């Protein structure tokens, strides 16, 4: 005690001399990030609250924005998940959309049409108890991602689930969970793949999707889609889809590498983030499992990461395409631990072969290089918080949405602390990197 007192006394005498500055966190790294679009209306991938007076739209007060994808000609599409923001839920009268094309720097239009975004009676079926997702195959219920394939066709991934106004995420009904393909040449639906309840469980949450259209992958020759199930109820795994036959199956179902880690606490802008699983429920650790997904640039390896964890995992795609008797055992045995990536949501790949992921605890984005098995900081910027969705475009830029997801009512203290507008940024890829086209 005496020694400590002496030390403190001498410290207080030694005044810092004027002119000496301490080094500090520079806060910024990598190429400059450019602002591309401000979301004033619905919340992108995810939810959003309508702010502005969007004249042509009836999306009211709240919307969470999530996805972003940029076509070869520069058309941009986003989605607004009703499974993450109750104010994105279509109630049959409010005209809210779950997918939109970005038509200007801050305007949007429902895509592919207002009608397709408007299930009659709304996204939720209140005639069941408890309420369930509506069962329409020809309307969108709750879209979690929009992704362009190598032929520049837009694929819409519908979870079939939506939040009620009190924050309950309703289970899906057959018809809701689906993958819908839209032709950008005529803005028309050209294929709909409805998932059976053995592939998309009622409490699944089909989150993100990647495409490999090479014809030698399956007998049908129609190419393959890989989807993460990020279900907060723990129904995690990888869904594989044969786009030629429309068949789908699961692998790595429920193994620990696809699930959230117990006790996991992410920090964003210095604040610990805890999840509220439903109305009047006690807090839990962020429960979201396998969410971010990316194919290696040669299509041979699939990478994923749970939101509720910091590790990066991968498996050879050959193991996922196999449906033989031992295929699940072989797939589990082939899972690789790629080390820690930090806390992230969506992933991306470029022609450098890098796997990009957000690092929300560092206000940035990093990439994993499979060649030297390390992560490298790509960008940092104080404007970056929850990096939700990423999209590498043919113009050599990585586009990413920043949507304050951790400040939405699903997270402690349960109030909406998001501040509009939400943002779409882009940053130039290293070494002239560009979009990978597996076709
Ligand atoms: C939905 O919008 C209303 C009106 O703007 C707002 O009061 C409410 O907090 C929003 N709810 C959510 C879950 O964001
Ligand atoms: C978007 O913003 C850019 C830069 O401010 C401007 O050059 C462009 O004309 C705007 N585009 C539209 C459609 O408003
Ligand atoms: C609502 O649920 C009932 C009972 O299962 C079913 O008959 C009906 O088709 C459902 N409607 C929609 C739009 O999901
Ligand atoms: C829209 O274009 C696609 C090709 O991109 C074609 O297969 C489809 O038949 C067209 N649909 C309509 C309604 O014109
Ligand atoms: C790994 O590769 C990346 C990309 O080439 C490079 O930037 C990074 O410095 C490498 N890291 C190490 C530790 O070799």
From TrEMBL:
GO CC aspect terms: extracellular region
Domain of life of the source: Eukaryota
Span of the signal peptide: 1-19
Major localization class: secreted
Keyword Cell inner membrane included in the entry's annotation: no
Subcellular location: Secreted
Keywords assigned: Secreted, Signal
SUPFAM superfamilies to which the protein is assigned, alphabetical: Calcium-dependent phosphotriesterase
InterPro entries per UniProt: 6-blade_b-propeller_TolB-like, MRJP/yellow-related
Family: Belongs to the major royal jelly protein family.
Entry-linked PANTHER family: PROTEIN YELLOW-LIKE PROTEIN (PTHR10009:SF18), PROTEIN YELLOW-RELATED (PTHR10009)
Protein name stated in the entry: Major royal jelly protein
Biological source species: Periconia macrospinosa
Upper classification of the organism: Eukaryota, Fungi, Dikarya, Ascomycota, Pezizomycotina
């Amino acid at each position: 005690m005496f020694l400590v007192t002496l030390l403190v006394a001498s410290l207080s005498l030694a005044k810092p001399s004027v002119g000496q500055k301490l080094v500090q966190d520079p806060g910024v790294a990598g190429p400059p990030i450019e602002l591309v679009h401000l979301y004033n209306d619905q919340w992108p991938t995810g939810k959003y609250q309508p702010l502005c007076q969007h004249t042509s739209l009836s999306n009211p007060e709240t919307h969470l924005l999530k996805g972003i994808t940029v076509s070869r000609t520069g058309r941009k599409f986003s989605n607004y998940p009703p499974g993450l923001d109750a104010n994105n839920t279509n109630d049959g009268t409010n005209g809210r959309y779950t997918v939109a094309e970005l038509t200007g720097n801050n305007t949007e239009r429902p895509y592919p049409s207002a009608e397709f975004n408007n299930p009659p009676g709304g996204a939720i079926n209140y005639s069941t108890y408890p309420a369930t997702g509506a069962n329409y195959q020809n309307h969108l219920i709750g879209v979690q991602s929009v992704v362009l394939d190598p032929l520049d066709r837009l694929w819409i991934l519908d979870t079939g689930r939506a939040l009620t106004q009190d924050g309950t995420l309703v289970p899906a009904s057959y018809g809701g969970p689906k993958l819908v393909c839209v032709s950008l040449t005529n803005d028309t639906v050209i294929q709909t793949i409805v998932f059976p309840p053995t592939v998309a469980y009622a409490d699944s949450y089909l989150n993100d999707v990647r495409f490999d259209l090479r014809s030698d992958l399956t007998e049908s020759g129609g190419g393959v889609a890989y989807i993460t199930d990020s279900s907060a109820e723990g129904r995690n795994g990888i869904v594989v889809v044969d786009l030629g036959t429309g068949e789908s199956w699961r692998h790595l179902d429920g193994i620990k590498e696809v699930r959230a880690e117990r006790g996991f606490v992410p920090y964003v802008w210095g604040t610990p983030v805890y999840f509220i699983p439903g109305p009047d429920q006690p807090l839990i650790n962020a429960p979201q499992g396998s969410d971010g997904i990316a194919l290696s640039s040669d299509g041979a390896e699939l990478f994923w990461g749970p939101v509720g964890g910091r590790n990066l995992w991968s498996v050879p795609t050959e193991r996922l395409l196999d449906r033989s008797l031992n295929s699940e055992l072989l797939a589990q045995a082939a899972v690789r631990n790629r080390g820690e990536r930090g806390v992230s949501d969506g992933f991306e790949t470029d022609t450098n072969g890098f796997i990009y992921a957000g690092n929300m605890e560092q206000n940035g984005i990093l990439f994993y290089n499979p060649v030297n098995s390390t992560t490298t900081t790509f960008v940092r910027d104080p404007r970056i918080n929850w990096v939700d969705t990423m999209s590498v475009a043919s113009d050599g830029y990585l586009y990413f949405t920043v949507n304050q997801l951790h400040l939405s009512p699903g997270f402690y203290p349960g109030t909406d602390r998001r501040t509009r507008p939400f943002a779409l940024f882009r940053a130039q890829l290293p070494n002239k990197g560009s979009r990978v086209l597996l076709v």
